[in-house]
Amino acid sequence: MIRSLLSVGGFTLLSRITGFLSLAMQSAIMGAGAISDAFFIAQRLPNSFRSIFGEGAFNAAFIPCYAKSLTQEGDEPAEEFAGEVYTLLLASQIVLLLLVWLLTPQFVSLLAPGLGDRPEKFALAVNLTRITFPYLLFMTLFALHMGALNAHGRFALPAFAPNLMNLTVMAALAVSFLFPNAGYAASWGVTISGALELGLLMWGARQIGVLRGLRKPHWPRVREFFIMLGPAVIGSASPQIAVFADTILSSMLADGGVSAISYAERLYQLPVGVIGIAAGTVLLPEMSRRVSAGDVAGAHRAQSNTMALTIALAAPFFVAFDTIPELIVAGLFMRGKFTAADAIAAGDVLAAYGAGLMALVLIASARASFQSRGDTSTPMKIALSALAVNVAMKVILFRPLGAVGLATATSIGLWINLGALVAIAIERELIDFDGVFAKSVGATLLACMLLTLVAMFGRAPALALGLHFGSQANLVALIALGAAGAVVYGATLVGVLHLAGVRLGGLRRGR
Length: 511
Fold this sequence. Notes:
The structure is a single chain. By secondary structure, this protein is mostly helical. The protein is 84% helix and 0% strand. The chain has helices at 2-30, 34-72, 75-102, 104-111, 119-132, 134-151, 156-160, 162-174, 182-207, 219-250, 257-292, 296-323, 325-333, 340-354, 357-371, 377-401, 403-427, 435-466, 473-499, 504-508. Helix 2 runs parallel beside helix 5 (119-132), helix 2 packs parallel to helix 11 (257-292) and helix 12 (296-323) packs antiparallel against helix 15.
């Protein structure tokens, strides 16, 4: 299982690298102003609906049902169930797409009320939203194919697919002179990439003989799926409601406010996608299979090892985001139309997001305690409670802190969500942290302490080195400091684990 996690993480890392290149291209061409704000707002609707109805809620309901059907009934009944869900998803997404196309101005007004007194920016956001929204249809069907492939142990192709989005957006930006502005070019790139990603997974599914076509839905077959889907939708909607709150409030800031949050969020999402989502993607079907087969101890062991590895891999990002955030943003994006002031603004937001990073990467693994057993209502209730605190804190902190306050509230909500998930799972004996987990966390803490010292005392020498490279000073300083930190962190972690008697090979095999 851990080998699959590393495979998913590796391909996701590749997609985050191409994503960074795409974002760097966007920042250089669009900067952090009205056009980039409108583009990021246009992406909010399809991306948020995708998170609600796509990977989030859909996988939580579909994978346990599909895995159960495969295990207990066989391939053909499972294929029939998947085909019936396919039909229902396609029909619902067509209806939603037509609805949003007809009411796009109203949706944008709700999402970004701060644009009401800026008609040109509002009109641009409406036009870009109409272009990007079909991406949701493609990605919802993508999620179905991803779930089926994951249930069959095929993780690499879905993890690779997001590279197509980044490459397509870059290609569109390269010919942005053919469009009214770069926002239009990037928006068309997003939608075209959705079709390419779906096509790739449809090909992969056909190769193993699953999701061969649509099936007429029968309520008895899909009843359990929809009973689980309802709470999962509500639970998955809660973080997206928080995102909507961010967009609504940040639209009231001056031009560039939405962009500062979006650039910081993209960086913050790097370890989330590479580590947190990869862990949840692999862990849920693994635990579902083991629980269905009666191997509860094996499910607990897989979860404990996955969470230990997740903490060890994500911790360096947490340290970096909260010690050198401005240097990270400046080194990666400060060129073209992206200014030093933009870097400072985005860096402050990145630090606030970074405070909740460890909670965010662990939530998917903790939630698997319940979802692998068909319980989607408990995570839903916890998510809604955390959401209430999150939104309340956003309203309180927005006035004095602006974009930083919104990110800080997000971090608070994430820790409440994770804490409640783990506490309830322990109380119900749905999770069991073993000795390997405790030793791994201890080794990670010690390695983080030394990494923090490297960041604090190594920054000045790294910047001095960067001065020799002119306009690339910040990037060179970031690379030098990152390389030194990686050596110190990696050597400390491996050394302490060795002294504690934890063998990385055993951890990868889930022993």
